[in-house]
Design brief:
The complex is a heterodimer of chains A (about 475) and B (about 70). Chain A has about 475 residues and is α/β, with parallel strands linked by helices. Chain A has a single domain, classed as Amidase signature (AS) enzymes, CATH 3.90.1300. In chain A, the strands form three sheets. An eleven-stranded mixed β-sheet of chain A has the order 1-3-2-6-8-7-14-15-11-9-10, sandwiched between helices. Chain A has a two-stranded antiparallel ribbon with strand order 4-5. The two termini of chain A are about 20 Å apart. The relative contact order of chain A is 0.14. Chain B is mainly α. Chain B has a two-stranded antiparallel sheet. In chain B, a hairpin with a 5-residue loop joins strand 1 and strand 2. Classes of the chains: A alpha/beta (about 475), B mainly alpha (about 70). At the A-B interface, helix 10, helix 11 and helix 12 of A face helix 1, helix 2, strand 1 and strand 2 of B.
Chain lengths: ~475, ~70
């Protein structure tokens, strides 16, 4: 099978071929490495490509197949890992010069799960420095480029993963999402990305992370592939007290099920208040398409979302505490946008931190109430499509907003609330701007009901105008 | 609502924070202005009687509740 044809497949399409030994893990890995090498000068999506380790893994996995041992649908599938996830014996930089020589001695929980499932770790993916931003224009390792238009950002902070999945360099990538860092790249790159329920996936081995609201999540080219990835990484980790010991359902079981009888809530507050007209048009068309699939559309109210900005106050204080030891020792090695965004947190008062946590409670209650009336919510994933790499601002409704660094929270305004509520949220491609840049639809569900999000997303994916579209980069 | 450079420097000094030059303080100001605006908005909210909800819980068998 020609290399590029292999890399066009989804995991669900490729896995049976590997299992049947029509395609070997070595063949797939060589195809992925060749594409990674070819596109790295254009996308700059990796910080480290693991040529030797990936080949060694692929050979071992091929030998297992020859012995009749098959680990499951990730057996022999090349995946990318964001560089803020620990990988044993492999440099893990968190996208910063401060940790440029950091080599962990163990894998993150999710990396172990992927290895055990037979995934081939293709490389460590480029990202925003310290995962603190939406651009993935990394000052130390270079900007990641969007495969749909190389002059544009891929979203962030997991931009390398989004770009790789969209361009067919990897079949899936693991990112992290503190304010939208999986869903933002999914939106900007036209792939599927989920931030599952807080507590569904262990964060152990996620470096320089937030105390509250960070998640590890997968990006893939299809909803089915996303369910396959989440199946592998989900589950209770006794060594991460933030994980919740709930049963892990079969996330693929409800794919293809009828949507009739389900109710979708469309918020009349907040999410559509500040939005690019092309994004709004695409998302509203997607909601209408869900209606045509039999979902009852209900307008819902989230009035307390006017206080959603306060949720960031706790994050500001948390950021400076997280960065404190690194700033004390390596302040000169920080990029300015991350440094000054973190240092702003030292001015947050304890009383305001407490108020932010209470606003979090109010907003969680509000979502809980609304999600008794409907099965899930539909919103835009991002307020704007990807913007130019060389742009320091995003213009919306005639106002300019910083696109990175201090004051840039606007770009994550549709995704970050779900980090505070902990609710599962998925981004699915739903169209393109006039400039040909992808647009994402976000579905937000009840706690631990990711399978319902996958069911709805999968049904929508089949009718989405984005289905089958691939970026022009080659 | 604004906050003066002198006040910010006093906070850094009194709480042993990271020192920032006048120029650097201007770089953090957009984040601070956003913070202060949000705090101002919260004045209209009564936050005195709320319970904590740090964790999502699940009934035995996996049925989730918020």
């Amino acid at each position: 099978m020609p290399n590029d044809d292999i890399m066009e497949l989804t995991i669900a399409e490729l896995a049976p071929k590997i299992k049947a030994r029509e395609v070997s893990p070595v063949e797939v890995t060589e195809a992925a490495l060749a594409k990674a090498e070819r596109l790295q000068p254009k996308l700059n999506s990796f910080i480290t490509i693991l040529y030797d380790q990936a080949r060694d893994q692929a050979k071992q996995l091929a030998a297992e197949l020859m012995r009749g041992e098959y680990r499951g649908p990730l057996h022999g599938i090349p995946v990318g890992i964001k560089d803020n996830l620990e990988t044993a014996g492999i440099r893990s930089t968190v996208g910063t010069k401060v940790l440029s020589d950091n080599v962990p001695d163990q894998d993150a929980f999710v990396v172990t799960r992927c290895r055990d499932a037979g995934a081939v770790i293709l490389g460590k993916e480029n990202m925003e420095e310290f995962a603190a931003g939406s651009t993935s224009s990394n000052i130390h390792y270079g900007a990641v480029h969007n495969p749909w238009n190389l002059d544009y950002i891929p979203g962030g902070s997991s931009g390398g993963g989004g770009a790789n999945v969209a361009a067919g360099v990897t079949f899936a990538s693991l990112g992290s999402d503190l304010g939208g860092s999986v869903r933002g790249p999914a939106h900007c790159c036209g792939v599927v990305g989920i931030k599952q329920t807080y507590g569904r996936v262990s964060q152990r081995g996620l470096m320089v992370t937030s105390f509250n609201g960070d998640h590890v999540g997968p990006m893939t080219r299809s909803v089915q592939d996303n369910a396959i990835m989440l199946q592998v990484i989900a589950g209770y980790d006794p060594l991460d007290p933030s994980t919740v010991p709930v049963p892990v359902p079969d996330f693929s079981a409800s794919l293809g099920n009828d949507l009739r009888g389900l109710k979708i809530g469309v918020p009349k507050d907040y999410y559509f208040d500040l939005i690019d007209p092309e994004v709004e048009s695409a998302v509203r068309k997607a909601i209408a398409a869900l209606g045509e699939l039999g979902v009852e559309i209900i307008e819902v109210s989230l009035p307390n979302m006017k206080y959603a900005g306060a949720l960031r106050i706790a994050g500001m204080a948390d950021s400076v505490v997280t960065h404190e030891p690194y700033i004390r020792c390596n302040r000169e090695d920080y990029g300015t946008t991350v440094l000054y965004r973190a240092l702003a947190g030292q001015f947050v008062l304890g009383t305001d931190y407490s108020k932010a946590l209470k606003v979090q409670r109010i907003i969680k209650e509000e979502y809980a109430r609304v999600l008794q009336e409907v099965d899930f919510l539909a919103t835009p994933t991002g307020p704007v499509p990807a913007w130019r790499i060389d742009s320091d601002t995003v213009t919306l409704d005639g106002a300019d907003y910083p696109s990175r660094g201090p004051g840039s929270g606007m770009t994550a305004r549709c995704t970050s609330p779900s980090n505070s509520t902990g609710l599962p949220a998925i981004s699915i491609p739903c169209g393109f701007s006039e400039q040909g840049l992808p647009i994402g639809l976000q579905l937000i569900g009840r706690p631990f009901e990711e399978e319902l999000l996958y069911q709805a997303s999968s049904a929508y994916e089949a009718v989405s105008p984005a289905v089958g579209k691939r970026p022009p980069v080659s | 609502m604004t906050i003066t450079t002198e006040t910010l420097k006093a906070m850094i000094r009194d709480y042993k924070g990271f020192e920032l030059s006048d120029e650097e303080l201007e770089l953090v100001r957009p984040e601070l202005e956003s913070y202060l605006a949000e705090v101002e908005l919260l004045k209209e909210l009564d936050l005195s009687g709320l319970m904590s909800s740090r964790l999502l819980r699940a009934k035995e068998g996996g049925e989730a509740i918020a």
